[in-house]
């Protein structure tokens, strides 16, 4: 998936929202997971995960659990 400025802006927005709500993806130790969630939201693709609790309640994120 290509990277672009609009995706970076979305990451920044999601990071800010996550901080305000105390979401786990706001932690500085989770930048890669936030990028994965951002990419799924940006491309309107469901995210396949076995760890729903880690990414639930991210605005606009659709989850798929096997």
Quaternary state of this entry equals single chain
Shape annotation: globular
Proportion of beta-strand residues? 5-15%
Number of strands: 2
Let me know the average pLDDT.
90
Order of strands, widest sheet:
1-2
Distance between the termini: 23 Å
SS element count, helices? 3
Query: Which class best fits the helix and strand makeup?
Result: mainly alpha
Largest sheet, in brief, is: 2 strands, parallel
Low-confidence stretches: none
Radius of gyration: 11 Å
H-E string: HHEHE
User: Share of helix among residues?
Assistant: 40-55%
How many domains?
Answer: 1
Descriptors for this entry?
single chain, mainly alpha, two-stranded parallel ribbon, 3 helices, globular
How would you describe the overall organization of this protein?
This protein has 66 residues and is mainly α. The chain has one domain (5-64). Helices cover 50% and strands 6% of the residues. The chain is built from 3 helices and 2 strands; from the N terminus they run ααβαβ. The chain has helices at 5-21, 31-42, 52-55; strands at 47-48, 63-64. It has a two-stranded parallel ribbon.
Task: Produce a short descriptive summary.
The chain is mainly alpha-helical. It has helices spanning 5-21, 31-42, 52-55; strands at 47-48, 63-64. A two-stranded parallel ribbon has the order 1-2.
What's the layout of helices and strands?
Layout: H1 5-21, H2 31-42, E1 47-48, H3 52-55, E2 63-64
Parallel strand pairs: 1-2
């Amino acid at each position: 998936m290509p990277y672009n400025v609009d995706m970076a802006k979305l990451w920044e927005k999601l990071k800010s929202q996550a901080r305000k709500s105390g979401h786990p993806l706001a932690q500085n130790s989770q930048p890669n997971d936030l990028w994965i969630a951002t990419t799924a939201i940006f491309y309107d693709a469901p995210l396949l995960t076995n760890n729903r609790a880690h990414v639930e309640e991210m605005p606009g994120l659709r989850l798929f659990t096997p």
